[in-house]
Amino acid sequence: MPVITLTIDNELISGREGETLLTVIKEHGISLPTLCHMEGLSERGGCRLCIVEVEGNSRPLPACTTPAREGMVVRTRSERLESYRRMLVELMLAERNHYCAVCVSIGHCELQRVAAELGVDHVRYEYLSPKLTMDLSHERFGLDHSRCILCTRCVRVCDEIEGVHTWDISGRGVKSRIIADLNRPWRDSGTCTSCGKCVQVCPTGALFLKGAVVGEMVKDPTMLARVLEGREKKEWEG
């Protein structure tokens, strides 16, 4: 791909035409908070935490879905961007019931980590406190809707990597829920292979291994990369 040149945080850097801004930014060692993004999956641009300011645009743009173009002038840090990111995290925390002290993923939760990095130590908005259920019907795994941030990593890994599309989203806005096979109990899914990929890519304690207690649910961040590497090797050998 042709090489392009752009300016990020007052530094002239190079990238490849067709790459996203997030890819170029990460390749040059610049850190941006993300929750819906995961290497190896398609981009959704849902969490909006990777927003950046691009000269010529009045509104911040999500770096994960914005193509890098020749001559772009980009800022990844500013008072406005940090304020927006803190607001977004606070809204996520207020939308569901994130009781960290009793969560299986406490200490290993990406939402918790991002909140700490952004200095979110309180929530300024009214908690919705929805009455949400748990699906513990599966033999090995559980789903806690209270901790779901609707990043759709589980949906995308199930569709794009495992190829069965067990998971989907039902409803709109604050009524959105992750569902299995047209809203069946997980155990009744006719498509789920029980591979556990959805559990491993979940950034919070929404999807977890049954039997895990507080702080025990540690996800494997290398799982998806190893799956993709194994697939590429198999295709090459075949």
Write up this protein:
The chain has 238 residues and is of the alpha+beta class. It has helices at residues 21-27, 79-95, 110-117, 153-162, 197-201, 223-237, and strands at 3-8, 11-16, 51-54, 61-62, 73-75, 134-135, 141-144, 167-170, 177-180, 207-209. The chain is 26% helix and 16% strand. A five-stranded mixed β-sheet has the order 2-1-5-3-4, with helices on one face. Keywords: 4Fe-4S, Iron, Iron-sulfur, Metal-binding. Residues 2-80 form the 2Fe-2S ferredoxin-type domain. Residues 80-119 form the 4Fe-4S His(Cys)3-ligated-type domain.
Q: What's the SSE blueprint?
A:
Layout: E1 3-8, E2 11-16, H1 21-27, E3 51-54, E4 61-62, E5 73-75, H2 79-95, H3 110-117, E6 134-135, E7 141-144, H4 153-162, E8 167-170, E9 177-180, H5 197-201, E10 207-209, H6 223-237
Parallel strand pairs: 1-5
Antiparallel strand pairs: 1-2, 3-4, 3-5, 6-7, 7-10, 8-9
Brief account:
The protein has 238 residues and is an alpha+beta fold.
- Beta-strand portion reads 15-25%
Percent range of helical residues? 25-40%
Mean residue pLDDT: 94
The assembly state of the depicted protein chains is single chain
Order of helices and strands: EEHEEEHHEEHEEHEH
Q: Cα-atom Rg, whole angstroms? A: 19 Å
Number of strands: 10
